[in-house]
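REQUEST ID: PR-0412
SUBMITTED BY: lab tech R.K.
PRIORITY: routine
TASK: structure prediction, single protein chain
INPUT:
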Amino acid sequence: MANVSVVNMAGEKVSELTLKDEIFAIEPNTSAMHIAVVNYLANQRQGTQSTLTRSEVSGGGKKPWRQKGTGRARQGSTRAPQWYHGGIALGPKPRSYSFTINKKVRRLAMKSAFSAKLADNEIIVLDSLELAEIKTKEIAKMLSAVGAAKKALIVLPEKNDIIYRSARNIAGAKVTLVNTLNVYDLLNCDSLIILKDAVAKIEEVYA
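STATUS: complete
OUTPUT:
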């Protein structure tokens, strides 16, 4: 069982928390994490890129010259791919890049990401995070007090608009919920700041 310090918003240690080994102390599976990251990035793609084929560009109705006798290569249309202003051959068309991965692989990837973060001492457990009003300065002060790196991911147990709106203007900082966590965000941050209540939810979901 791994023990981590629980700190308050001022960066002072207030208690200790024992994390479950089956989530935070497994051997990270790099293959599973890679598949999860590729899946996340593929699912983000809009797939709206499109090129015009020879049937979609304007013009090209008449045969440029007769089939035989001119000495030139036979041509059927001035909108074939080899012509200027011709259609694009084998160009991209709108499509979906999304795909699904096995549920067990997704869970293994999440556990591997948590374990990798703990092994690199990049997890900070916060006792509580409460703001009376929307104040970016307060979140910035908290991040500095707990020693967070520039790219910080704050994990909340439940939705809190005040915290979200206070942190959204800080470069590198991102606020997310336990139920929307993904492997890409976990690996992309340099400091993973998890509220104590959020840790309990994570262990409940992935234990």
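NOTES: The longest helix spans residues 103-119.
REVIEWED BY: pending
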